[in-house]
Design brief:
The chain has about 120 residues and is mostly beta strands. It contains no helices and 11 strands. About 0% of the residues lie in helices and about 50% in strands. Strands 2, 4, 5, 6, 9, 10 and 11 form a 7-stranded mixed β-sheet that branches.
Length: about 120
């Protein structure tokens, strides 16, 4: 298992910025594929961005050019820098770790952090 603790959420005005952090347990963090998801009220959870163990990144179209995912293996932490925030970015943001195992990957989730963007 893995413990994931998100932080950095809050209330921000439209056009503002926030940086989310997700600290993970474990001694092999550098091998984890990390992702940020979000879930708005009444909507399904959606993938926002992910970063591989090799630092490859992917973003959903709606956040491209505004959000940046990064990782700091020395601190077992993944970040999501969110700029030019819009009201539609309001959601609970979740961190996910995909841990490679010989018999198949394991997905661990954080508890989520609320991001609210006011118009």
């Amino acid at each position: 298992q893995v413990q994931l603790v998100e932080s950095g959420g809050g209330l921000v005005q439209c056009g503002g910025s926030l940086r989310l952090s997700c600290a993970a347990s474990g001694s092999i963090f550098r091998f984890y594929a990390m992702s940020w998801y979000r879930q708005a009220p009444g909507k399904e959870r959606e993938l926002v961005a992910d970063i591989s163990s090799g630092y490859g990144t992917n973003y959903t179209d709606s956040v491209k050019g505004r959000f940046t995912i990064s990782r700091e293996n020395a601190k077992n932490t993944v970040y999501l820098q969110m700029n030019s925030l819009k009201p539609e970015d309001t959601a609970v943001y979740y961190c996910k770790a995909r841990i490679p195992r010989p018999w198949g990957p394991y997905d661990g989730w954080g508890q989520g952090t609320q991001v609210t963007v006011s118009s």
